[in-house]
Amino acid sequence: xxxxxxxxxxxxxxxxxxxxxxxxxxxxxxxxxxxxxxxxxxxxxxxxxxxxxxxxxxxxxxxxxxxxxxxxxxxxxxxxxxxxxxxxxxxxxxxxxxxxxxxxxxxxxxxxxxxxxxxxxxxxxxxxxxxxxxxxxxxxxxxxxxxxxxxxxxxxxxxxxxxxxxxxxxxxxxxxxxxxxxxxxxxxxxxxxxxxxxxxxxxxxxxxxxxxxxxxxxxxxxxxxxxxxxxxxxxxxxxxxxxxxxxxxxxxxxxxxxxxxxxxxxxxxxxxxxxxxxxxxxxxxxxxxxxx
Length: 292
Known about the structure:
Blueprint: E1 5-9, H1 13-24, E2 29-34, H2 38-48, E3 52-53, E4 65-68, H3 75-85, E5 93-96, H4 107-110, E6 115-122, H5 128-134, E7 139-144, H6 146-157, E8 162-165, H7 171-198, H8 203-224, H9 226-229, H10 233-236, H11 239-252, H12 254-274, H13 279-290
Parallel strand pairs: 1-2, 1-4, 2-3, 4-5, 5-6, 7-8
Antiparallel strand pairs: 6-7
């Protein structure tokens, strides 16, 4: 059976990685590639090992599947443009890769007979070369038309994704959760490094310290579960230590202080689940983190 042709509009890191994974496994044939920056188009074709260079959307040939990998704020306009300049969409699968937005952005193409969907792989695509090796095991959420979901499910499962469907109403909270878990983990590391810098540690030593600690904590959540993985002053009910932290942040890093308080409240809920502290200790910590 001949693999379907896949066209790509928006050739960023996510799009490059997915196309290369599918091409390498013989699941798709690379079709046309279009990006507003021609150098990015050429780089994507080279990375994916094939495909044709399109200088404009109207010059792209028909394909069985279209991936719209543009930034979120131009997905809708891209769909409108494609629906206007090309006539043959019936039976075609068109999907975008926004974690936040639904397939409704592709309604102009659905109206022309396309099956549309949103597909969001929960993976950090910092470097496509690394993602080729690390992508397996990632979860991909799908939402949209049944036919589009069925075809995309097969493609993602064949590159070792766990595939789940998500209701439209849940996409905003879903995407918020992925940003909090991945992007803000990086931000949390930066905030911690800033404190260690002001504490007088060299950046190399501080980076090793924080990255090792974060990696160990994450491994513990995987091996023990979130409840048992929580250690430290909140798990012990150590009010003196927590108060010292808040005082230090108040004089040095008021921005981090607000973050510390909010995360502390979440940690108290985990400590309550551990059932090792009395309610009076838990309430005292909640009051400490809530006090301004």
